[in-house]
């Protein structure tokens, strides 16, 4: 991989992990920590803090969680669909991304490696700083290992065989998928050893913790089918005693109750920090804010662009099982808008607002991550401040249950699944479906995850790692649920390696079927 060296203002990126009450105008202008010409940098504790803040900054731009990464993670699943007029977006869910047009997926690829480069600068320079606080030094190095692991996690997960930079250089050879996962696992392991379980200082809210590193370590093991080690990592998260499910499921997707007890790691967005311009990528300007474009991209018709919508398959699956009070699963209303009596969006009554258009009146629109509770008229200012929750405790519980099932402890899986079900009032699974065998429990976990995490970027990862695309019966089932799967071709579960990378990195091989 050949890197562009970005000049940027590190102080801006510090806004990613501190509250706005602590931000002054002068804080927005700092020495550039990644400019090799600045010989005075990488000398003090504060330099190290600013350097790691810059590494967090790559989570905020268009290639990552401002917009592109949620789209790439969501659109291939059977929980959502796209009729976007933009072909680069429309084609993601149809497994038809164009090698000659790297829009969206190429931006993500580039930004992941921008983040890796910034993390590597921290890892290369911080060990040489004589810290006044050794605990701070370890924490910063742990955060750098976590962020490098996270960026590489996305790169390997989406692009398969990619470069694995672990030090500053000009060219990095393409590595195998197995080598990629090994590096991701090594980074998360190292991060878990260095990071604290919690951050006592509220100004550090949003920084990586031991639980975040262990959670992603478990995911990396799970994605490589190392269920034994995944089980150990997830149990370590549980045993930390730091996390618990919030009582209100919807609190995980609004700008209230952020960084709550259920959140292991989330990207910090804010309407009030920084400027008003969007961070599209590359070298930032001083006017950049730290807001998300997810809400407008996924927004309901007339309130956003409606580039992403829930599937009717998802809507119907929410009807399969009633709660103990014979009500519909409350996660349905937290996930999507539909024509239900009394439903309001952005202060408007659904049935009244869409009354003149039968298509919209009978359609489904995204509610997760929308600023739709009445404080805003629509999303057309492109400035959502809702934090993106990358890893929730509910995910840890269901992944742990999956590991128990895959390591021949199917009975043990019940209690962890039930913790997630009980929050939304679903019946005791041990009573409703007692004595399931491993295969039956595997299917049940698929159903539980489908309803707990729609529009959160998990569904297609699950489909791929479970091998459903290589199973003719399962693939036909997916095609019956989501017509977009009829476009799937072997190898298209991964995105193409961007052509610019192929051109700049001799010897790179393109992914199959592209």
TrEMBL record:
Coiled-coil regions listed in the entry: none
Primary localisation category: membrane
Residues annotated as domain SusD-like N-terminal: 88-222
Keyword Membrane included in the entry's annotation: yes
Cited Gene3D superfamilies: 1.25.40.390
A cellular component term, taken from the record's GO annotations: cell outer membrane
Residue ranges constituting the RagB/SusD domain according to the UniProt record: 262-514
One Pfam family in the UniProt entry: SusD_RagB
Annotated PROSITE patterns: PROKAR_LIPOPROTEIN
Keywords on record: Cell outer membrane, Membrane, Signal
The keyword RNA-binding belongs to this UniProt entry's keyword annotation: no
Compartments (UniProt record): Cell outer membrane
Record InterPro entries: SusD-like_N, SusD_RagB_dom, TPR-like_helical_dom_sf
Family: Belongs to the SusD family.
Protein name: RagB/SusD family nutrient uptake outer membrane protein
């Amino acid at each position: 991989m050949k890197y562009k060296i970005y000049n940027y203002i590190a102080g801006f990126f510090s806004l990613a992990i501190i509250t706005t009450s602590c931000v002054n105008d002068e804080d927005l202008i700092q020495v550039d920590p990644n400019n090799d010409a600045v010989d005075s940098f990488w000398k003090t504790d504060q330099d190290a803090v600013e350097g790691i803040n810059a590494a967090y900054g790559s989570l905020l731009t268009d290639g990552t969680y401002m917009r592109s990464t949620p789209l790439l993670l969501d659109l291939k699943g059977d929980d959502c669909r796209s009729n976007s007029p933009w072909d680069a977006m429309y084609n993601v869910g149809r497994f038809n991304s164009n090698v000659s047009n790297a829009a969206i997926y190429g931006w993500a690829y580039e930004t992941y490696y921008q983040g890796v480069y910034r993390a590597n600068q921290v890892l290369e320079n911080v060990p040489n700083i004589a810290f006044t606080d050794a605990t701070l030094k370890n924490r910063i190095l742990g955060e750098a290992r976590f962020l490098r692991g996270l960026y590489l996690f996305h790169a390997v997960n989406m692009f398969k065989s990619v470069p694995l930079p672990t030090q500053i250089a000009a060219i990095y050879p393409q590595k195998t998928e197995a080598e990629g996962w090994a590096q991701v696992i090594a980074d998360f392991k190292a991060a878990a050893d260095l990071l604290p379980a919690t951050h006592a200082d509220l100004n550090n809210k949003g920084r990586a913790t031991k639980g975040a590193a262990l959670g992603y370590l478990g995911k990396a093991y799970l994605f490589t089918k190392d269920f034994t080690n995944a089980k150990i990592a997830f149990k370590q998260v549980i045993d930390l005693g730091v996390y618990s499910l919030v009582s209100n499921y919807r609190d995980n997707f609004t700008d209230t109750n952020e960084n709550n007890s259920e959140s292991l790691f989330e990207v910090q967005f804010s309407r009030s920090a920084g400027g008003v311009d969007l961070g599209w990528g590359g070298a930032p300007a001083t006017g950049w804010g730290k807001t998300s474009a997810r809400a407008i991209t996924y927004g309901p018709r007339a309130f956003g662009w409606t580039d992403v919508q829930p599937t009717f398959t998802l809507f119907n699956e929410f009807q399969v099982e009633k709660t103990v009070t014979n009500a519909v699963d409350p996660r349905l209303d937290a996930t999507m808008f539909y024509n239900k009596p009394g439903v309001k969006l952005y202060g408007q009554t659904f049935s009244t607002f869409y009354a003149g258009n039968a298509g919209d009146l009978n359609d489904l629109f995204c509610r997760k991550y929308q600023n739709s509770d009445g404080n805003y008229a629509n999303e057309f200012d492109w400035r959502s401040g809702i934090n993106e929750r990358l890893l929730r405790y509910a995910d840890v519980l269901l992944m742990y249950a999956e590991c128990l099932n895959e390591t021949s402890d199917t009975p043990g899986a019940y209690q962890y699944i039930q913790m997630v079900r009980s929050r939304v009032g679903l019946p005791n699974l041990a009573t409703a479906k007692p004595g399931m065998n491993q295969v039956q429990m595997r299917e049940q976990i698929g159903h539980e995850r489908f309803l707990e995490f729609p529009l959160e970027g998990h569904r297609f990862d699950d489909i791929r790692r479970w091998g459903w695309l290589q199973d003719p019966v399962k693939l036909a089932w997916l095609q019956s649920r989501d017509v977009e799967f009829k476009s799937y071709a072997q190898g298209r579960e991964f995105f193409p390696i961007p052509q610019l990378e192929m051109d700049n990195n001799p010897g790179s091989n393109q992914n199959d079927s592209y």
